[in-house]
Design brief:
Blueprint lengths: L1 E4 L5 H4 L1 H10 L1 E6 L2 E9 L7 E6 L17 E6 L14 H15 L4 E8 L7 H15 L5 E6 L4 H6 L10 H16 L4 E4 L12 E2 L5 H8 L21 E2 L19 H9 L17 E4 L8
Parallel strand pairs: 1-4, 1-10, 3-11, 4-5, 5-6, 6-7, 7-8, 8-9
Antiparallel strand pairs: 2-3
Helix pairs in contact: 4-6
Length: 304
Amino acid sequence: MILSVSRRTDIPSFYSEWFINRVKEGYVYVPNPFNRKQVSKITINPEVIDCIVFWSKDPSPMLDMLDKIKDYKYYFQFTLNAYEKDVEQNTRRKSEIINTFKELSSNIGSNKVIWRYDPILLNDHYNKNYHYYWFERFCRELKGYTTKCIISFIDLYSKTEVNTKGLNLLEITSEDMYEMSERLVAIGKDYNISIEACSESIDLSKVGVKKSKCIDEELIQEIIGSEISFIKDDTQRIECGCIKSIDIGTYNTCMHNCLYCYANMNFKNVKENNLCHDVKSPMLIGNLKGDEKVIEREMKSLKK
């Protein structure tokens, strides 16, 4: 199976010690996001986990723990955006995060660290020229440390509309998407970084941007050195090209407090949940209360 760690929160940044404990114990409990009484027990061992996909904005706490997962194959989706503290309220300085990106890439290989520049949002401050300037600065820093950048344009769900209200965001039109994508492709080309788009309904291929698969069977097969059996993940949006995986994260737990985040309702909930985190618990947040039904998930390798 493919393990996603995690679309729902930044485990490498905030819960890496907990994750390493789960690897040692060989299993994790994952509550149903919509019904806490339904809990899945997920086996974690190299025989059934073909590849781990980590998602993070700042995996610096994991850098000294990579030896603990040396028996596993994995890669990172690493988000690095140009936003300031008005948008990404609890992130470190970009220069420090870039150093973490470089160190991670040097340790595991540039093909295993995928740069994410997403979501792209626009307002009077974060205008197109702002993005072009910072995207090129990042490309210059990351040349040789990654081969691919995944972009997306912001989707305003109801909770993100509330959280970003003070940013006075501008509507991003199809013309904006074509124009910006074409410019980013041209910039990336100078630094040997290709551009792909995540979960966009618009076809950007005519400006050189192909549809991305963040959980990508081609990359996974390259990393593990074996073909796998796979199916499209039908739990994601129709525009998503990812293959099926098991996510072990929990919503409303990421402490970065980025206002565009779709996985957090509000930061009050996040702080309350974080206080319930126990690094020794089988669950990311809290412990079993005793009224749950725990079902062991069937786990098997996808290798052919």
